Amino acid sequence: MSQNGKRTWAVIGGGNGGQSAAGQLGMMGFPVRIYDIFPESVEAIHKKGGIEVTGALEGFGPVECATTDMKKAVDGAEVVMVIAPATAHRDIARDLAQCVQPGQIVFIHPGATLGALEFYHVFAQHGVQMDSISLCEAQSLIYATRLVEHGKVSIKGIKQTLAVGALPAAKSEAVVSVLQEAFPQIKAARNVLETSLTNLNAVMHPAPSLLSASLIESKWDWKYYLDGITPTVGALIEKLDAERVAIGRAAGLDLPSALQMYKEMYGVQAPTLSETVKLNKAYWEIAGQKKINTRYVTEDIPMGLVPMIEIADLLRVPCEVMRTIAKLGSFMLDTDLFAAGRTLKNLGLSGISAEKFLEFVERG
Q1: 297 Cβ neighbours under 8 A, 6+ residues apart
Q2: How does pLDDT run across 133-143, given as a tens digit for each residue?
């Protein structure tokens, strides 16, 4: 504990989410450091002495340091929170393995799909004693947020509830009790398979992005959720979402539908997904992208849908909508989004049985 009785946090990642989290933590009086690979981001935060927060929260969050030296950020921190694109997780895990310390909580926020398993695999490859740390992941980013400029964020909304699971599952309650000191809305998931299979980004991002190609490539400004999630697109997403719920059922999990998650996380409810997202004020200002080669496709297919498809195949659950969207993304981007994705092979679990996989999620 620090002198003021609050734990020290290290935020790995200086993008939208990372600066929002560091800003909020600083506003709450937590000692916080932030690491980023971009010098211009670090220099701007260092010059200001912290991060200005606007929108759903208003204030200034001081930081102890902003640095491009990961070891400096991590040394002595009690919680190491990774807020970065899932495509960077493997590299971050490799670098973090060189400086992570016994007793630390490594919190992947969010983990996308099977993010904790990726960190576990890389950490183990690099000699980290896995029983000496606590590894956990969140189902989603707690914020709907955008970076105004380096050192200033606009938080559009904050989720009312957020599930976090640990690997192994037995550590979930202890980890969550620490995270709740800063984020009381965090709740313990049964395991990291529950958090991975409630990854809304994989549900809400790839299909609408691919099916909005004409809007993306037009001269018009548009809103991602308000314009992109039309009734037909929303209905397709609900079919994909039903596959996700079925995968969870095969794994012994009673997963909420996307409609239920919007009610829990944002307090909005309507009969259809298309109607529901339009009630969410946190989404009203989210602009539609201007290029098809967007994180909503390049990240949320290989690190979101592909591992869901892998789990579905392992548990023998049909997932033709998921597979179709993932293939469509590969065709439209002219790249194999499966090969670079979180396949069981790439996670060091090639040939594992369904029983052993589920046991690993529970026990590590």
Answers
A1: 205, 206, 209, 210, 329, 332, 333, 337
A2: 999 999 999 99
Residue among 89, 95, 205, 241 flagged as catalytic: 205
Strand partners of residue 243: none
Cα–Cα distance between 329 and 227 in angstroms, integer? 20
CB atoms within 10 A of CB 353: 9
> How would DSSP label each residue in 22-58?
HHHHHHTT--EEEE-S-HHHHHHHHHHTEEEEEESS-
Instruction: Return the ∠ at Cα 354 (arms to 352 and 355), rounded to 5°.
Output: 100
Percent of the chain with pLDDT over 70: 99
Q: Of the residues 150, 300, 313, 336, which is catalytic? A: 300
- How far from each other are the two terminal CA atoms of the chain, in whole angstroms? 28
Q: How, if at all, do strands 134-138 and 162-167 pair?
A: antiparallel
CA distance 236 to 248: 19
Task: Provide the token pair at 66.
Answer: 């902003």
Res. 364: pLDDT tops 70:
yes
Q: Per-residue pLDDT tens for 340-351?
A: 899 999 999 999
Task: State both tokens at 197.
Answer: 């299979």
Closest CA to 11 of 80, 93, 110, 92: 80
Tell me the C-alpha to C-alpha distance, in Å, between residue 215 and each of 123, 210, 224, 226: 42, 10, 10, 13
∠ CA 159-234-334, nearest 5°, is 100
Looking up tokens 């369904």, which residue turns up? 354
Catalytic residue status for 205: yes
The CA distances from residue 316 to 246, 248, 257, 276, 313, in Å, are 10, 12, 20, 31, 5
Whether 241 is catalytic is no
Tokens, residue 87:
């495509």
Three-state SS at 11: strand
Give me the amino acid identity at 110. Answer: P
pTM of the predicted structure, to 2 decimals: 0.92
DSSP annotation of 86: G
